[in-house]
Structure formats: structure tokens, C-alpha cells
Amino acid sequence: MLPFKLVYSDAYYLPIGNHVFPAEKYRRVRDRLITTGVADANDFLEPQPATDQDILLVHKPDYVQKLKTGTLSPREEMEMEIPYSRDLVEAFWLAAGGSILAARQALADKVSISIGGGFHHAFPDHGEGFCMIHDVAVAIRRMQRDDKIRTAMTVDCDVHQGNGTAAIFAGTRTASALLPSSSVSTVERPANAPQGKIRGAHAGDVFTISLHQHNNYPVYKPPSSIDVDLPDGIGDDDYLAWLDNALSSGLRQFEPDLLCYVAGADPYKDDQLGGLELTIDGLKKRDRLVFQVARARNIPVMVTYAGGYAKNIEDTVTIHSNTVIAAKEVFAG
Ligand SMILES: [Zn+2]
């Protein structure tokens, strides 16, 4: 039995047909965790869908109305890059409910992982890049509304920049003497690391960190609190050094009540939509690093999965399953 809860439902499956996004990965991760004895049935909690009220904490009423009535324009549907259906709307409301549950469990148990979610390309007024609803932002806003947390930090390690996250939390930033003022980030380039670029500024109640491949979707990257624009082809050691520096810098500037880790599997070297060169072992070290930092500072951490498009789906399942194993190794001791 795990010392924390996993959040999962068979209805996390996204009904999008034959698509580069492997919608069956969630069920396959769950099955792998059980057949390999990492987890048992009692470790899983079944989420409820988010309410419309929860979704409206992040998304614009016009957009939510279009989703609920099936009245997106052809252009809006094309931008989402997944085929609209009522069932798909339900799957995204459930993903948001799963992230809310994982956030709540993380506050109770120090860590919780939703075997789904991480739809970081969804904006308040539109969806894009396979993302309809920003489940992580909904969870953060719900925890704040319930007075469970005041501040949060997102750590997005998907190979694609968290543009929706940056846009959502930029729009609500307010100047406050109690919070770090807007300033250029102080992240330093790790010794001997290849040329990458750090950009950053922050003022607000949610601090956003994104490590991503610079030459990749989205073309326009709205500023996160810290962006690490990685060059093509970066490998394990350099990536881990950049991540370590970004986490240290972020946590020097900001004290989150909750850390939201977006554990994308697509920085993997055999990913179809990514151009970095991380190994399966390197990705597990990445997960361990995030968990070790959170544990050392006593910051609860909730995890979502985001992307993963390995040529062989078994690799994506292994990378996502390893995130649970890494959490077990770090939090069991
Ligand atoms: Zn991605």
C-alpha cells in the first residue's frame, strides 16, 4: 500500500479516436501499477467531475457555454486539435475534478498523483493543443476559494511551454507588498550547460515555472514567472541542472502552500512531438528531484501527467508509472 493516494477513473479516457495523443495511456498506467505490485486497488480514489462553478473559477462564461451547448466555431475546434463531443466535455470536467481531489489529498498526505490531467494549453476563453479545460488551474482556484491554500507554484516539465498556465495566472496578478515584486529572474545558467535562456518576472499568488524546448509548440510563449527555454537535443544531466536551478530560484523568491507538478512524459528522446533527449532513467531522476525538493521544504505536491507521445506507447506508460515509483521512494522513507 502506498503512503499517498492515486486519483483515477476509467472515464479519464478521452474519446478522440485515432490520435497522436494516446488516450488509453491512463488505463494502461493504472494496470501497470497494479500488475507490477507498485500499487493496489485501495490506493486509488475515484474522482467526481468538477462543477460548472469550479470550471468558471478559471474559464470565461462564454467559452463554458459554447462547450456545454456544442457551439464552438470550426476554427475554435480546429485550434483545440481534438474533435469536440459531449463525451469529451465530460472527460475534461472529470479531469478537473480529479485534479481538485489530488490537490486536496496532497494537502492531507504531502503528495498525491492524478493518473491524468495536466492540460496546460487551455486558456480562459479557448482550448488548444489537445487541451479544453485547465484542470490544474481549476484545482488551484478551488483550493484558494476553499481557504485551503493562499499561494501555489506550478512546475511544468512537459516538453511544451505551459502557455495556458502562464496566461491564466498572469491575468490575475496583483501588486502586493507582501508578495515578491515583478523582477527579472535570478536563475543562473548551470556550469557547463549548453546555451539555454531564462526569462522571468513575477507578482501574484501563483508562481509559474516552465522548462520546455524553445523550438517547439507553442510558437508564442506568454511569460511564466520563470521560463527555461531549452535548446534542442538537451540530455539528462543538463536538464536536471536547469531544473535544479529553476526550483532553487523559484523557491528563493516565493513560498507556495502547494506545488503543482506537471510531469509530462514528452521530454523523452523517442517522443514524436518533442526534441529533447532525456532517457527513461533521466525522467525518473527529474521526478525524484521535484519530490525531494518538495519534501525537504515540507511543501505538499500534487501531480498531473500532461503529454507523452513516445513512438512506443509502452515507454510513455513506463515514464508515467515511474513517477509513482519515484514518489513512493521519496515519500515512503
Ligand atoms: Zn507536451
Briefly summarize what is shown.
The chain is α/β, with parallel strands linked by helices. The protein has helices spanning 25-35, 52-55, 61-69, 74-80, 86-109, 135-145, 163-171, 236-253, 280-296, 313-332, and strands at residues 5-7, 44-45, 111-114, 152-156, 197-200, 206-213, 226-230, 258-262, 301-304. It has 10 helices and 9 strands.
Kindly describe this structure.
This protein has helices spanning 25-35, 52-55, 61-69, 74-80, 86-109, 135-145, 163-171, 236-253, 280-296, 313-332; strands at 5-7, 44-45, 111-114, 152-156, 197-200, 206-213, 226-230, 258-262, 301-304. It has 333 residues and is of the alpha/beta class. The chain is globular. The model is unreliable at 173-184 (pLDDT under 50).
Keywords:
333 residues, alpha/beta, 10 helices, globular, binds zinc ion
Secondary structure topology:
Elements: E1 5-7, H1 25-35, E2 44-45, H2 52-55, H3 61-69, H4 74-80, H5 86-109, E3 111-114, H6 135-145, E4 152-156, H7 163-171, E5 197-200, E6 206-213, E7 226-230, H8 236-253, E8 258-262, H9 280-296, E9 301-304, H10 313-332
Parallel strand pairs: 1-2, 1-3, 3-9, 4-6, 4-8, 6-7, 8-9
Antiparallel strand pairs: 5-7
The chain binds zinc ion.
Residues 158-160, 264, 266, 306-307 line the site of zinc ion.
